[in-house]
Specification:
By secondary structure, the protein is α+β, with helices and mostly antiparallel strands. The chain folds into 2 domains: about 270 residues, BirA Bifunctional Protein, domain 2, CATH 3.30.930; about 100 residues, Rossmann fold (3-Layer(aba) Sandwich), CATH 3.40.50. The strands form 8 sheets. The chain has a 7-stranded mixed beta sheet, with helices on both faces. It has a 5-stranded mixed beta sheet with strand order 23-22-24-25-26, with helices on both faces. The protein has a 3-stranded antiparallel beta sheet with strand order 4-11-10. β20 and β21 form a beta hairpin. The radius of gyration is 26 Å and the shape is globular. The two termini are about 30 Å apart.
Length: about 450
């Protein structure tokens, strides 16, 4: 894990937030490559969940949330983790994650066993709206994106004119004041979610739970996650939310252990019923065919953007051997991202930077590709070194403009380039006019 964290900073995937001021615990900034990777993930999720379907629409809800909405959902009263204090080193710890030794829980920092009794700690960030600091001005940063979907259910239903079953999808930030943020970006205080609330008739719930579990596993395979590192946990009754009739956790084998990537839960009609009771507003559905009015049930696939980005990085990281410019074998760090997830799709290299005709042609190729994909131009250093730099950030393809491109070794090779594959390091000769279609077909 240390190698991965180091690479993330060195190559501009992820930085500690406010690092020059000592950092902000549990908060992270995404650098240039991390931003591209994150956006690729979100865009593909949106394509699969919303754009490629007729039964799902989108929503972008507010982060600031009315306290009454979170009171109705149960977050104000019950969204807590058990917390203890270590009397020896004064650390505050999450009680249910402490290791035991000889049947006694101990502090992971100092090894002390003098701990306070566990008490509930509410995980929501509270703030004030307006100019006066009184109870009427309290608002919260949302702890999940789901509640704005439930609150806006009737409005979305009215304007979209969808029939059951249908879904409302959202990607957005959420905030939880975690007692112990840990494992790099896995458990953070500010994070992003990709959530779908899929509304249905009560009798459809269990079948749709199985359907969405299958769909979500397929999604992770499509973005390049190794299926062997994915595991499905059928959450037992005692560990499920009381309103859930079934929950599956999709887990990934991180370097620090198997952890949840996504939950797929059949939440019944609990959320809509809670908001109906608290608001007094109708959040039901009228079936035109059966003339029946009822409150829909919901199946929720809920994924973490940051956790999935971390899984992509961990899954992609690899080391192998490759020859340097003198033919000597050396260790090569390579990020084997699926091409559709890779931050940069193609790098363009003139063989020599001091040959103006090569540079000019390389710039032409860069301009040709740029409108179709994210392209990086690099003319600094030996060509082998440039390949290695792109391997380390996961660029799947490299295009080299050389003297053959200029026709100096035969007219039949004029306006052709070498196309290099990151994983195999094999190169093929290809016409410039065929580059866009060849590369595009591999990154979709």
């Amino acid at each position: 894990m240390e190698k991965i964290v180091s690479l993330c900073k060195r190559r501009g995937f992820i930085f500690q937030a406010s690092e020059i001021y000592g950092g902000l615990n549990g908060v992270w900034d995404y650098g240039p490559l991390g931003t591209e990777l994150k956006n690729n993930l979100k865009q593909y999720w949106w394509k699969v969940i919303v754009r490629d379907r007729d039964d799902v629409v989108g929503l972008d809800g507010a982060i600031l949330t009315h306290p009454a909405a979170l009171k109705a959902s149960g977050h104000v009263d019950t969204f807590t983790d058990p917390m203890v204090d270590c009397r020896t080193c004064k650390a505050r710890l999450r009680a249910d994650q402490l290791a035991e030794k000889n049947g006694t829980k101990q502090c992971p920092n100092c090894g002390g066993r003098d701990l306070t009794e566990a008490r509930p700690f509410n995980l929501m960030f509270q703030t004030q709206m307006g100019v006066s600091a009184d109870p009427a001005s309290i608002a919260y940063l949302r702890p999940e994106t789901a509640q704005s979907i439930f609150v806006q259910f009737k409005n979305v239903l009215d304007v979209s004119r969808k029939k059951l079953p249908f879904g409302i999808a959202q990607i957005g930030k959420a905030f939880r004041n975690e007692i112990n943020p840990r494992n790099f970006t896995f458990r953070s205080r500010e994070f992003e979610q990709m959530e779908l609330e899929y509304f249905c008739r009560p009798e459809q719930g269990m079948d749709l739970l199985a359907y969405w579990l299958k769909e979500r596993i397929k999604f992770y395979e499509e973005i390049g996650i190794n299926r062997k590192r994915l595991h499905i946990l059928d959450v037992p009754d005692k560990d499920r939310a009381f309103y859930s009739k079934g929950t599956f956790d999709i887990e990934y084998e991180f370097p620090f252990g198997r952890q949840e990537l996504e939950g797929v839960a059949y939440r019944t009609d609990y959320d809509l019923q809670q908001h109906i009771k608290a608001s007094g507003k109708a959040l039901d559905y009228f079936d035109e065919e059966t003339k029946e009015r009822f409150v829909p049930h919901v199946v929720e696939p809920s994924a973490g953007v940051d956790r999935t980005v971390l899984a992509l990085i961990c899954d992609a990281y690899d080391e192998d051997s490759a020859p340097d410019e003198k033919g000597k074998m050396e260790t090569r760090i390579v990020m084997r991202f699926h091409p559709r997830m890779a931050p940069i799709k193609c790098a363009v290299f003139p063989l020599l930077k001091n040959k103006e005709v090569l540079v000019a042609k390389a710039r032409e190729v860069q301009a040709l590709l740029r409108s179709h994909m994210n392209v990086f131009y690099d003319e600094g250093g030996a060509i082998g070194r440039r390949y290695r730099r792109q391997d380390e950030i996961g660029t799947p393809f490299g295009v080299t403009i050389d003297f053959e491109t200029l026709g100096e070794k035969g007219e039949e090779l004029r306006d052709t380039v070498t196309l290099r594959d990151r994983d195999s390091m094999k190169q093929e000769r290809i016409a410039i006019k065929d580059l866009v279609e060849t590369i595009s077909s591999k990154i979709r």
